[in-house]
Specification:
It is built from 7 helices and 10 strands. By secondary structure, the chain is α+β, with helices and mostly antiparallel strands.
């Protein structure tokens, strides 16, 4: 079936809302049935608040119980400055009401199901709403990393790649905090954020997730294989509700034994 943004092409309001209804509304949507109201909010990401976790970068570079050589530390400092100058962080999210279908491995909104797997479903089981989000660091850092690699500067390229990952994680954290602050004002709590490709959630479902956003949301596009461009981008889901809890990431329960973040998120 066509994606939601194909069905809604040309039907998105300037205010940033989708209208979904179970019945056609005055033929406005050409007699296509829709699901619920979804508010899509583009966030003004504060570049000054993009904080790269240097300890995580050091850990991913192999520091364990010691220190890296001075040259590598200087490269990290140098390219952290370079990446923050060329990044173009963007982010946004949409809210959906949760529907409890009683499934042990699916998350549902009206008319739409995500096969998140049992781990994510368990973490979101008490949610009353879901925030689906997307964030990106922009193409700058990945282009610099690729350029350095082509020049044979592999360490420099790898460091820039890690810094790009740190930037997009920081943007996602900003979105998470903004949602938390908004929900706390309404007496609600939020869960961790979870993304397709992790905890047994098939990355192919990124197609369905992005289908809920306007085309080119946050200037992120998807390939047929569900790879995001810019590459330093992330999408996912956050649970919202009065009884949800924020917990440590369940690395011990995740099947991705080779995840590069496993050793940094214990």
């Amino acid at each position: 079936p066509p994606s939601l943004h194909e069905q809604c092409k040309g039907k998105i309001s300037q205010a940033g809302f989708f209208l979904f209804s179970r019945e056609p509304v005055n033929n406005f949507f050409n007699n296509v049935s829709y699901l619920a109201w979804m508010e899509v909010e583009y966030l003004d990401i504060d570049n000054r608040q993009v904080a790269i976790d240097k300890n995580e970068i050091l850990s991913l570079l192999g520091r364990s119980g010691g220190t890296l050589d001075q040259h590598t530390l200087e490269l990290i400092e140098k390219y952290e400055v370079s990446c923050t100058e060329i990044m173009s962080p963007r982010g946004g999210y949409g809210l959906f009401g949760a529907v409890d279908q009683g499934s042990p491995d699916e998350v549902a909104v009206n008319g739409m199901h995500f096969k998140t797997g049992k781990i994510v479903r368990k973490m979101l089981r008490k949610a009353e709403q879901y925030a689906f989000f997307a964030a990106t660091a922009g193409a700058g850092p990945e282009n610099l990393a690729r350029s350095l690699m082509k020049q044979g500067q592999f360490l420099e390229g790898y460091i820039v790649d890690l810094i790009g990952t740190g930037i997009v994680e920081s943007v996602a954290a900003q979105i998470h905090q903004l949602i938390r602050t908004r929900m706390e004002a309404e007496g609600m709590k939020v869960t961790n954020r979870y993304s397709p490709g992790y905890c047994s959630w098939d990355v192919a479902e990124q197609q369905q997730l992005f289908g809920m956003f306007p085309p080119g949301f946050c200037e992120i596009t998807l390939t047929e294989s569900s790879l995001m461009f810019p590459i330093k981008s992330v999408s996912g889901i956050i649970g919202i509700g009065s009884r949800v809890t924020y917990q440590d990431y369940p690395c011990e329960a995740c099947a991705m034994k080779q995840c590069i973040f496993r050793k940094t998120r214990k």
